[in-house]
Amino acid sequence: MIRTIIVDDERLARNELKKILSDFPEIEIIDEAVNVQEAVEKIEEAKPDLIFLDIQMPGNKTGFDLLDVLEYTPKVVFTTAYNEFAIKAFEFNALDYLLKPIETHRLSDAINKVKKSIEKQSQIPRDQLGVADQVFVKDGERCWFVKLGEVRLFESVGNYAKVLFGNNKPMILKSLNALEERLDPKVFFRANRKHIINLLMISKIDAQFNGGLKVTLQGGEEIEVSRRQAVKFKDTMSL
Predict the structure, then answer these.
(1) Which CATH superfamily is domain 134-237 in?
(2) What are the residue boundaries of the structural domains of the chain, listed by start?
(3) Do domains 2-122 and 134-237 have the same CATH topology?
(4) Is 17 helix (H, G, I), strand (E, B) or coil?
(5) What average pLDDT does the segment 222-235 reach?
(6) Four-point Cα dihedral 168, 173, 178, 183, nearest 10
(7) Non-local CB neighbours of 85 within 8 Å, separated by 6+ positions
């Protein structure tokens, strides 16, 4: 079953989507949300496999604003009446972009993409990599064989991740979610939606007024640790 949350402020739109999804037994609708704040809370709590996400949301917020603040990012299929946001949607790694009124065959295509993505993800080796492990990194014509302990930061850039070690910043075709699954959580910490930091490479930690933290790495990078992740960070680093 694909555990799913529908995020849309229009009740009729949610009901119509639920009605169509009833023909797809692999989809389990576990919740609904009508605004960004409610969606953040429910997604972070339930950690669904998939969200159907509207773009225009109450309070001058958008579906993109939601994805910007999520720590946990499920598969995303946008559902909207506006076609002008399609390019931006795919910059956020959306699997599909459905225009309202949603057609059943397009919804079927989207669900097939979701299933293939989940299946591909499940085939990723689960053996964790630690600081002593060496990994092969290739960016264009340049190649490196680097120990993970030398990597101080992974930074999300669209469908890619920037790997920072020494003076090098190559790009690899990996999502942060996929990297997080492979990396030793005792060393590599998900600071926010866009960054995984090497805890052994922290040179300074500053408290922020909003309850979050700012860490400075040995390379000089300053990374914000979100308020939600700051709690986990303190637990991880405490005696």
Answers:
(1) LytTr DNA-binding domain (2.40.50.1020)
(2) 2-122, 134-237
(3) no
(4) helix
(5) 87
(6) -20
(7) 55, 64, 78, 97
What angle in degrees, to the nearest 10, is found between the helix axes of 11-21 and 104-122? 70
Residue 68 has a CB neighbour count (10 Å cut-off) of 13
Q: In Å, how far are 26, 52, 126 from 6, measured between CA atoms?
A: 15, 5, 29
Asked if 206 contacts 197 with a C-beta cutoff of 8 angstroms, the reply is: no
Q: What is the pLDDT of residue 159?
A: 75
- Is 50 in contact with 4 (CB distance < 8 Å)? yes
Average pLDDT, rounded, for the chain: 90
**Domain 2-122 CATH assignment equals 3.30.750.24:** no
- Tell me the pLDDT tens digit for each residue of 52-72: 999 999 989 999 999 888 878
Please tell me the distance from the alpha carbon of residue 13 to that of residue 33, in angstroms, as a whole number. Answer: 12
Q: What is the pLDDT of residues 144-201, one digit of tens each?
A: 999 999 999 999 987 789 999 999 999 998 888 888 888 998 899 999 989 999 999 9
How many residues are given for the chain?
239
Give per-residue pLDDT as tens, 113-147: 999 988 877 765 557 888 888 888 888 888 899 99
Q: Which residues contact 106 (CB under 8 A, 6 or more apart)?
A: 96, 98, 99
